[in-house]
Amino acid sequence: MRLFLLNPELALSTKEVAERSRLRQPAALRELKTLETVGLLVAKKKGASRTWLLDQAFPFILPLKAILKSDLIGRKKQLIQQFGRCGKISLLIISSVFLEDGDSRADLLVVGSNLKKNSIAKVIKELEAEIGKELSYAVMETPDFQYRLNAWDKFIRDIIDYPHSVIIDKLGLAATPSFFSGLSTVR
């Protein structure tokens, strides 16, 4: 359901849905047929195969999106736990797709030391499957982030200047008035 609600323009085959959702094809097909039965999806024949897409006339699209949005914002503990096994995370910021605001340059910013990039990539893949959308993210060591922050790096400023939510802040940046002054931050 998330896959189609967050990507309303996509028409996907059963195989593509299974891959993106990390499901087996028979399970994905069962779910797709259920969503078609309730009217959320429409199946289009394309040769011998079918593609599935969101039915834009479904009357409950907006309430379902609102539920998904509130679910994503309320997942702070889960995100902390997921990234807890990826090294010493000192700053974790979510934005864009997590807050349904597509203006930010990254959906996720991970800052820390002794970061395990393979573990981070695995967590990102899990989140992408759960959310149903490919994530853009940045991973930085703490000294690199602090240098870029002090240099008013455009990439860092773009993440901070747009709506975001700070999940982990062991650097104490949120307590610094000059850091977030005048910024629209979702808490």
- What is the share of helical residues? 40-55%
Distance between the termini: 26 Å
Helix and strand pattern: HEHHEEHHEEHEHHEH
Radius of gyration: 19 Å
The total count of strands amounts to 7
- Regarding CATH, which class of the largest domain? Alpha Beta
Structural class: alpha+beta
Q: Which sequence of strands runs across the widest sheet?
A: 6-5-4-7
Strand content: 15-25%
Overall tally of structural domains: 2
Mean pLDDT: 85
Uncertain regions spanning at least 5 consecutive residues: 181-187
Please state the overall shape, judged from the principal axes of the Cα atoms. Answer: elongated
Provide a descriptive summary of the structure in words.
- This protein folds into two domains: 63 residues, Winged helix-like DNA-binding domain superfamily/Winged helix DNA-binding domain (Arc Repressor Mutant, subunit A, Orthogonal Bundle), CATH 1.10.10; 107 residues, 2-Layer Sandwich (Beta Polymerase, domain 2).
- The C terminus is likely disordered.
- The chain has nine helices and seven strands; from the N terminus they run H-E-H-H-E-E-H-H-E-E-H-E-H-H-E-H.
- Strands 6-5-4-7 form a four-stranded mixed β-sheet, with helices on both faces. It has a three-stranded antiparallel β-sheet with strand order 1-3-2.
- Helix 2 crosses helix 3.
- With 187 residues, the protein is α+β, with helices and mostly antiparallel strands.
- The chain is elongated and about 55 Å long.
- The longest helix is centred in the middle third of the chain and has 15 residues.
- Strand 2 and strand 3 form a beta hairpin.
